[in-house]
Amino acid sequence: MLEVPMDCGSITQRVFNNQKFYGSLRSPIAFIRNVYTTYELQEMLLSSIYHPSNTYCYSVDINSKTGIFEKLQKLSRCLPNVILNPVKYKFDSWGHFQDRAHIKCLELVLEREWGHAIILQNDDLILKPNEHLSELSEVLNSTSMIYMMKPTTSQNYLSEADWTPAGLQLFKDESKVPGNILHKPMKIWKGYNQMILSKIFIKSIFEHLNLEGIIERFDRKEFYGIDEMLFQTLYRNNLGLDGQFISNCEEDIFDFGRLTKWSQNGTSDSYNLSCRSKLERHSICIFGVEYLADFLETEFVIANKILENFDLAPLICMDEVLRGKKKIGKNWISKVELRKYPQFREMEMKHSGTYDREHFRC
Predict the structure, then answer these.
(1) What pLDDT digit, counting tens, does each position of 81-92 carry?
(2) CB contact set of 318 (below 8 Å; sequence gap of 6+)
């Protein structure tokens, strides 16, 4: 990508992109993104979803050679709702340090106004306009949208370790925690790095938990996919936190966070007919212009993934959509549709005082 001028006038002109009016958002969003490639891509992604009421926080890979950290510093000085995490991390394709970076950004934005945080990585593309995300956040209320499945123990985590909250020194004040929670081994759940997390849940985590022990346990160098278990495990084990999903459900729990087209042949260096762009990476089909129709109709919020050196048409075209210049098919998810997700029904019942954990139907 071409170098761009980095004075505040040029930055704001590119980010606002002739947008002269921003409607009010009743429930702003915090976008939490880990990055490692070029600044120019991230500025384009920001511009497509920028709103003065939202908050945007970035964490940068320590090995990035593109000058992205220094440019994001300038961006954050020009736009008060953009935050740069001052700590750099040694990211890798196995997921190491991703959780640490996301947690730090969540801590940095905690006192700002937002209803839900959307957790993102470098190549993720948002598919819904700010107005729809704000409406969705209002309807979700305390519900988080997190995909959860059972992990492969030999590849993802140390199954023989002590996974009790006591063993992990998880609680800041153990004297306030019932023994049946403190000494019960937690069940490990896995999903995607991309999530939609309620502020109620995040605030409760920071208020009650010490995350260092559990992050250290997951972030071991011999395992991969380790950035897809922390929030899943904290969300689904009964720890007495606000906004948790604690029903006795043994099956996988789905969400509408991340749209992914998986390779059918399981390889990362070839493609098959199901991948319309004919490019795959880590067994994931890279989205190109061939998938624009899918983006316009899907209920998913995040597309994973696009590549700046492959095809930027999805980003350029979705910019038009997200700014309201072109219409999308399925605008938002109604309460009726949300009730197919057990995590939403549980939170709804908790708010109405009708929740019964023993008789809840997943």
Answers:
(1) 999 999 999 999
(2) 48, 125, 126, 127, 292, 295
